Amino acid sequence: MRRWFCCACGDGILAPEAPRFDDARRWCLRCSKRNGKLQPRTRATSLEEARALALRAHEQAAARRARREKKRAKEVAADIAHALSGSTPKKQRGPCRATRADPVTGTTYVCSRPHGHTGSHRDWSNGYAW
């Protein structure tokens, strides 16, 4: 519930945050009777400030998304240029470097498979990857 005020007489009333158009609380009936036209009530300033704050946050998020998409587009363009030129890309992933200690001997093993490997490190004891 928010407080809505009449612009003409300043009378306030509690009503939902977004009352329906046909809700009597949306209109100041005393001023409407006096003027002969429906006199709308306006939202409280706190609601206006909250909406402005939310709008600003939405605009900032949209700007961040646009910057991120622009940066990603540059990276994709650079990757395509490297692929067409035949040279290696600037960023190459290193080895995985995951470690596990042997419970019996206490020896620490380091994975030597590529960084983006699929699968688990369960096969560390058979000497394949560790």
Q: Quick check: average pLDDT?
A: 77
Q: What is the number of independent domains?
A: 3
Structure annotation, total helices: 2
| Strand arrangement, major sheet | 2-1-4-3
What is the strand tally?
6
In whole angstroms, the N-to-C terminal distance is 63 Å
Oligomer: single chain
Label the structural class. Answer: alpha+beta
Query: Which bin fits the share of residues in helices?
Result: 25-40%
Residue runs with pLDDT of under 50 for 5 or more positions: none
Query: In sequence order, what are the helices and strands, one letter per element?
Result: EEEHEHEE
Q: What's this model, at a glance?
A:
This protein has 130 residues and is of the alpha+beta class. The chain is built from two helices and six strands, in the order βββαβαββ.
Task: List its traits.
130 residues, alpha+beta, 3 domains, 4-stranded antiparallel sheet, two-stranded antiparallel sheet
